[in-house]
Write a structure and sequence with these properties.
Distance between the termini: 73 Å
CATH topology: Four Helix Bundle (Hemerythrin (Met), subunit A)
Strand content: under 5%
Number of helices: 7
Largest sheet: none
Radius of gyration: 22 Å
Order of helices and strands: HHHHHHH
CATH class: Mainly Alpha
Mean pLDDT: 87
CATH superfamily: Cytochrome c oxidase, subunit III, four-helix bundle
Number of strands: 0
Structural class: mainly alpha
Length: about 220
């Protein structure tokens, strides 16, 4: 091996994959992949939003009445929680870019804590719906619990559980991803040259937050 090649190997960062020539090339590829993934997520939720708008156009009074049974306080609290987590996630990305190890770990922990808080609130909200028979399809039993709702309300709750349930799955996945990023952060793997994994995790988390920002007014604040 020539001295030039040997010097090149010594200068090559440990985090640079063998199939990339430079750190910039690797970061660009990672970001492109993440944004392509983000587009597929948006397309998936777009289909559900379209179904919601069709249902609302066909049965506006039913959607209005059925939505009144949703817990607006819980939904609002979860909105604040996710907005806070989006802020701390942005701070975590900035901390990685500026070699601020303590701020990186602290903000990742807060973001994960907010995500868990969201799921706890959602658990109690789902429990209340199940107890009152506000379920989709053949499990719908609101009348048996003394709740009078218009015809086809079961369809609304079908969409409610599908949309919020799918979003909840994304929150759980986000908790896993952010926990993995936190473990790596504690190993001192991220710095001003190697932060793309934190940034991509942030992009994913912002998408999760953005979807909820649309879900909350459409499902809970119907007017």
């Amino acid at each position: 091996m020539s001295s030039t090649a040997h010097q090149h190997d010594e200068e090559r960062p440990w985090f640079l994959a063998h199939h990339f020539d430079t750190v910039g090339q690797q970061m660009s590829a990672a970001k492109l992949g993440m944004w392509l993934f983000a587009c597929t997520e948006i397309l998936m939720f777009s289909g559900l939003f379209l179904a919601y708008f069709i249902l609302r156009t066909m049965y506006p009074e039913m959607v209005l009445t059925a939505s009144e049974e949703l817990n607006k306080t819980a939904g609002g609290a979860n909105t604040i929680v996710l907005l806070t987590s989006s802020f701390t996630m942005a701070l975590a990305v900035r901390a990685a870019q500026t070699n601020n190890q303590k701020a990186l770990e602290r903000n990742l922990l807060i973001t994960i804590g907010c995500a868990m808080t969201f799921m706890v609130v959602k658990y109690f909200e789902y429990t209340a719906k199940i107890e009152h028979g506000l379920l989709p399809g053949e499990w719908y039993a609101a009348a048996q619990h003394g709740i009078a709702l218009p015809k086809y309300s079961r369809v609304f709750y079908g969409l409610y559980f599908t949309m919020t349930g799918l979003h909840g799955v994304h929150v759980i996945v986000g908790i896993g991803v952010l926990s993995w990023i936190l473990i790596r952060a504690r190993r001192r793997e991220f710095n001003s040259r190697n932060y793309v994994a934190v940034e991509n995790a942030g992009i994913y988390w912002h998408i999760v937050d953005l979807v909820w920002i649309f879900l909350f007014p459409l499902l809970y604040l119907v007017k």
